TrEMBL record, chain A:
Membrane association type: Peripheral membrane protein
PANTHER family: ADAPTOR COMPLEXES SMALL SUBUNIT FAMILY
GO biological process: intracellular protein transport
Main location (coarse class): membrane
Species whose genome carries this gene: Astatotilapia calliptera (Eastern happy)
Compartments it resides in: Cytoplasmic vesicle membrane; Golgi apparatus; Membrane, Clathrin-coated pit
Descriptive protein name: AP complex subunit sigma
GO MF annotations, alphabetized: clathrin adaptor activity
Automatic annotation (TrEMBL), chain B:
Region (Disordered): 611-646
Keyword Acetylation: no
Listed Pfam families: Adaptin_N, Alpha_adaptin_C, Alpha_adaptinC2
Main subcellular location of this protein, as a coarse class: membrane
Location of this chain's protein in the cell: Cell membrane; Membrane, Coated pit
PANTHER family documented for this protein: ADAPTIN, ALPHA/GAMMA/EPSILON (PTHR22780)
Identification of the protein by name: AP-2 complex subunit alpha
Family: Belongs to the adaptor complexes large subunit family.
An annotated GO cellular component: AP-2 adaptor complex
GO molecular function, one term: clathrin adaptor activity
Organism from which the protein derives: Astatotilapia calliptera
Residue ranges constituting the Clathrin adaptor alpha/beta/gamma-adaptin appendage Ig-like subdomain domain according to the UniProt record: 737-849
Length: 169, 968
């Protein structure tokens, strides 16, 4: 078996992560991030199917499952499910920790994050995710660095750059 | 962290979200949303120019509505306006809206690109990152066109901030995936590779994803990354847990980067440089060692991160497949995980072991865990884990444990989750076939499979079983007997076997079969009808009964058009055709050619390309060879069945008159098409079969279908050979000898090509259909064939040129018209030339099996006539005699079939010794008729024969004697 020879020849366009979904125990989608181009219709179909599949699983089951030709890695934090789709050759455990790191980032930013924070500040949840993952790949894994970037942005919120930004003075 | 002004004071947004959450019903929610949409629309359309804040707020509301799952068809322009706002927060919301809701409105894309361009050149790192995130999120072709050349510059520029570099690297990766043709690294290559040395771990983490992807496409250009990756990995692996500060995750140093480094190395073979290799092996050993150390934290994050690296290292070890020591250590480590309390680890260990099972170094080590894996299959509560266990059992299966594994899988099937049954069935079928030592086991297994999971047994499985049973004389008897017995007790599930595996006392058998007819599905009934007509052919005593069945209204007036057509045509065929014609039409199928198992193909299809390994395929080809007996078949197994296999004694019921029809033949359905396009002969619907009948037989067989126009003699092949024809193959004579007593079959087969033959002769004329099958998946180009008559050969062979292209897996047909001028000894030569991939020319010459006996007309005569003529041919040179040892079975029926196949009449009651055989015939040539008499005297005790020929022409006696001595 030359699993990886295979990769080199045919999975050039592989994405580490295909998409990430956050949904509640009631099946309400709270955040969706797609790293592969798909039509809205297809996205809705995937979401519906996957939410159903994951919600049907029992607590002690393993965090990975094969779904279509993808691997699904998911974990539940309180009332929220975090669910990532990766490709066949990708690393499940490290993806599980990607989820955890993202939860940590949210937690640190909001201070004991709960589902409501993500509902009411969904745009922030997206900004944090973009600092952490870009195009489905880890961009910055240091918690400190990601939060620094977000903090900086928050400080800039209402600043008007009429002349020069502060760091260029 | 400032107690952030979360929501940026967008009170209106918060109120709206609360309203939505308070909605008691879906209808109320939709009502509230429509109200809001109307409000926003009116604001956007209003005369009053909106300020930035309001615009941001409304755009944000639209985004929220979209994320709730509603369609948004406006607001894009307002979002684009926000991009050029000089307030960061407005810009940010604008970009978010674009990222989530982009559509390929070209006008808009131009505006968006413009805004991005401004931000990229702003030299404000925060703005640059926003712009880069947007490109990476959208990743459209238009964006690639606009920015693919700019971003590499930003990535490697000395004064770019680290955070911008990180975004630029991943942005470029996304563009490369969208439009690889637009991202040209060229001059940047080496500077990008050296990002692996960057001081900032975040930059390395981002850059390595880009480098990995580029290396997969251009491994040579990026190969310097190997040594850099090894040293980076080595530094991380040997660092103390605190060295990397914030890049340490739960006491594990840089787990994400480590995994990515190990993944990058999997794009390359093991390093050639000894020092680099040594360092890498050291790293891998350290990682394996660390797995044995006590955990530094009880947190699951610690063990997950650590094990993530371990599994990635094991993947690399498996990828190299060259370090037996590491492979075995990896296997032992995974063995420990098999019994771990964490379900996740058990799952991954099973998955990873699957790949280890295929390495020759670790296959045995994996096998030692068989009991644990079987236990997992039985006791794991999670179906996805059980599935991994089943996969691993499949992967570790070999001859030594096949029986145990197949038994376990079968018993698991009884309770298996519905979602995985079909795949399990395929796997059991493949293993049973691949590792069948005795065929009774194989047949039992497959029958069990059908019994346990009948509904999940796909067409491919039973096609394959039939293929195997057909190709193995020695399993046919057992298969037939078993199925027969099962039929008596458990009819419904075995419908598919009916049409194919049928033996037993003819009428009993027929009645049994027909008693289940009404229980069967339409396709099965169609198979059954075909089986019935074959009954008539093989067992004439059943004719009346079967015709009665066909004639009844429920058949010839059946509402299903396929069934009706079959019934009508078969009835007609059975009443009009003579036994000879019937025998020709319903002649036994030739053995299936060796080819990839249809079930393996199905499994591959199911699992996606690449899911079945290369070695597995090779194995299966090899094994299929053994099973199908394709390549290994003795030259004559088809016509010399081993008596021991004949459990039901059917073989003795040899048909009379049919050339070489094997009485013990299993009945293959000639109509199976989808998924089962048997190679050597086109298995088309019935009318195609009629088309194959020679026109000279009887016009009434047309049955309303047009025949081929009677071919005129075509001009000889015009394509001039570009190379001299190769000399005939060394085995050409042997191949020729196989066809002396039969007219149809596979003439030649190798890895690339299969040549099948169907031929018929009448008087001094013959017609031969050649079927050239391309066994590969690639096209044959410049395909040409030439028939030549060496020396003085007095044959006139006309052929039509063949199509120069033969697609992979396709078969083309060529018709030869043959005229015998005078008697001859040598065979005409068939030269075939073609090339693959435009490469070297394949040049192959065979002898066409046209032998003088093909032009025999049988002559019936009485004993006295025979002896009178025998005496007349008394000149010494008119007689040829040979005494030789029996090479094949001396069974009466077999001998008779061969002599009939020779083309002569077999005369009873002529020779005073009933053990002897005498035959008479006239060879028709254009110029003359040559009378021939033959006498064959077997001596069973000595296993010898004496063959005597007397012909009116001495050369014919000699030639016939030579030819025939090879046949018995």
């Amino acid at each position: 078996w030359r699993r990886n020879h295979r990769n080199t020849s045919c999975v050039i366009m592989s994405n580490n992560m295909q998409f990430m979904l956050l949904f509640s125990r009631q099946g309400k989608l709270r955040l969706q991030k797609w790293y592969v181009p798909l039509s809205d219709k297809e996205k809705k179909k995937i979401t519906r199917e996957l939410v159903q599949t994951v919600l049907a699983r029992k607590p002690k089951m393993c965090s990975f499952l094969e779904w279509r030709d993808l691997k699904i890695v998911y974990k539940r934090y309180a009332s929220l499910y975090f669910c990532c789709a990766i490709e066949d050759q990708d690393n499940e455990l490290i993806t599980l920790e990607i989820i955890h790191r993202y939860v940590e980032l949210l937690d640190k930013y909001f201070g004991s994050v709960c589902e409501l924070d993500i509902i009411f500040n969904f745009e922030k949840a997206y900004f944090i995710l973009d600092e952490f993952l870009l195009g489905g790949e880890a961009q910055e894994t240091s918690k400190k660095n990601v939060l620094k970037a977000i903090e900086q942005a928050d400080l800039l919120q209402e600043v008007r750059y009429v002349i020069k930004p502060p760091w260029e003075q | 962290m400032p107690a952030v002004s979360k929501g940026d004071g967008m009170r209106g947004l918060a109120v709206f979200i609360s309203d939505i959450r308070n909605c008691k019903s879906k209808e109320a929610e939709i009502k509230r949303i429509n109200k809001e949409l109307a409000n926003i629309r009116s604001k956007f359309k209003g005369d009053k120019a909106l300020d930035g804040y309001s615009k941001k707020k409304y755009v944000c509301k639209l985004l929220f509505i979209f994320l709730l799952g509603h369609d948004i068809d406006f607001g894009h322009m307002e979002a684009v306006n926000l991009l050029s706002s000089n307030k960061y927060t407005e810009k940010q919301i604008g970009y978010l809206f674009i990222s989530v809701l982009v559509n390929s409105n070209s006008e808009l894309i131009r505006l968006i690109n413009n805004a991005i361009k401004n931000d990229l050149s702003s030299r404000n790192p925060t703005f640059m990152c926003l712009a880069l995130h947007c490109i990476a999120n959208v990743g459209s072709r238009e964006m690639a066109e606009a920015f693919a050349s700019e971003i590499p510059r930003i990535l490697v520029a000395g004064d770019t901030m680290d955070s911008v570099k990180q975004s630029a690297a991943l942005c470029l990766l996304r563009l490369y995936k969208t439009s690889p043709d637009l991202v040209l690294m060229g001059e940047w290559t080496s500077r990008v590779v050296h990002l692996l040395n960057d001081q900032h771990m975040g930059v390395v983490t981002a850059a390595i994803s880009l480098i990995t992807c580029l290396s997969q496409k251009n491994p040579d250009e990026f190969k310097t990354c190997v040594s850099l990756a090894v040293s980076r990995l080595s530094r991380i692996v040997s660092s103390a847990s605190t060295d990397l500060q914030d890049y340490t995750y739960y006491f594990v140093p840089a787990p994400w980067l480590s995994c990515k480094l190990l993944r990058l190395l999997q794009c390359y073979p093991p390093p050639e440089d000894g020092a680099v290799k040594g360092r890498l092996v050291e790293c891998l050993e350290t990682i394996l060692n660390k797995a044995q150390e006590p955990p530094k934290s009880k947190k699951v994050q610690h063990s997950n991160a650590k094990n993530a690296i371990l599994f990635e290292a094991i993947s690399l070890i498996i990828h190299y497949d060259s370090e037996p020591n590491l492979l075995v250590r990896a296997c032992n480590q995974l063995g420990q995980f098999l019994q771990h309390r964490e379900t996740n680890l058990r799952y991954l260990a099973l998955e990873s072991m699957c790949t280890l099972a295929s390495s020759e170094f670790s296959h045995e080590a994996v096998k030692t865990h068989i009991e644990t894996v079987i236990n997992a299959l039985k006791t794991e509560r999670d179906v996805s884990v059980r599935q991994r266990a089943a996969d691993l059992l499949y992967a570790m299966c070999d001859r030594s444990n096949a029986k145990q594994i197949v038994a376990e899988m079968l018993s698991y099937l009884e309770t298996a989750d519905y979602s995985i049954r079909e795949e399990m069935v395929l796997k059991v079928a493949i293993l049973a076939e691949k590792y069948a030592v005795d065929y009774s086991w194989y047949v039992d297994t497959i029958l069990n499979l059908i019994r346990i999971a009948g509904d999940y047994v796909s067409e491919e499985v039973w096609y394959r079983v039939i293929q195997i049973v057909i190709n193995r004389d020695d399993v046919q008897g057992y298969a037939a007997k078993t199925v027969f017995e099962v039929l008596l007790h458990e009819p419904s599930k075995f419908g598919r076997w009916f049409g194919s595996v049928l033996l037993g006392r003819p009428l009993v058998q027929f009645n049994l079969l027909h008693s289940k007819f009404h229980l069967c599905s339409v396709p099965t009934r169609a198979l059954l009808l075909s089986a019935y007509i074959k009954f008539i052919n093989l067992f004439p005593e059943t004719k009346a009964t079967i015709q009665e069945v066909l004639r009844c209204d429920s058949q010839i007036r059946n509402s299903d058009v396929e069934l009706q057509q079959r019934a009508v045509e078969y009835l007609k065929l059975s009443s009009i055709a003579s036994t000879d014609v019937l025998a020709t039409v319903l002649e036994e199928m030739p053995p299936f050619p060796e080819r990839e198992s249809s079930i393996l193909a199905k499994l591959k299809k199911k699992k996606g390309p690449g899911a079945v390994s290369v070695t597995e395929l090779d194995d299966s080809k090899r094994e299929a060879g053994e099973l199908n007996g394709g390549a290994d078949r003795g030259p004559d197994t088809a016509s010399t069945p081993s008596p021991s296999a004949d459990l039901l004694g059917i073989r003795s019921a040899a048909p009379v008159g049919a050339a070489q029809t094997n009485a013990g033949s299993l009945l293959v359905d000639v109509f199976s098409d989808s998924g089962c396009s048997h190679f050597p002969f086109p298995l088309l619907p019935i009318h195609s079969l009629f088309v194959l009948l020679p026109i000279c037989f009887h016009p009434c067989f047309v049955l309303g279908l047009s025949l081929h126009p009677c071919p005129v003699l075509w001009p000889p092949s015009s394509a001039p050979p570009s190379e001299d024809p190769a000399p005939p193959l060394s085995e050409a004579d042997e191949l020729l000898n196989k066809f002396v007593c039969k007219n149809n079959g596979v003439l030649f087969e190798n890895q690339l090509l299969q040549i099948g033959i169907k031929s018929e002769y009448r008087q001094n004329l013959g017609r031969m259909y050649l079927f050239y099958g391309n066994k590969t998946s690639v096209q044959f180009a410049s395909f040409s064939t030439t028939v030549s008559c060496p020396g003085e050969l007095q044959l006139n062979v006309q052929s039509k040129p063949v199509e120069p292209l033969v697609e992979g897996g396709a078969q083309i047909q060529q018709v030869l018209n043959i005229e015998c001028i005078t008697d001859f000894c040598d065979a005409p030569l068939l030269n075939i030339k073609f090339s693959r991939y435009g490469g070297a020319l394949q040049n192959l010459t065979l002898k066409l099996p046209v032998t003088i006996n093909k032009f025999f007309q049988p002559t019936e005569m009485s004993s006295s006539d025979f002896f009178q003529r025998w005496k007349q041919l008394s000149q010494p040179q008119q007689e040829a005699q040979k005494i030789f040892k029996a090479n094949h079975s001396m069974d009466t029926e077999v001998l008779k079939a061969k002599l009939l196949g020779l083309g002569t009449a077999l005369l009873d009651n002529v020779d005073p010794n009933p053990e002897n055989y005498v035959c008479a015939g006239v060879i028709q040539t254009k110029g003359q008729q040559i009378g021939c008499l033959l006498r064959l005297e077997p001596n069973a005790q000595a296993q010898m024969y004496r063959l005597t020929l007397r012909c009116s022409k001495d050369t014919v006696s000699k030639r016939l004697c030579e030819l025939l001595a090879q046949q018995f």
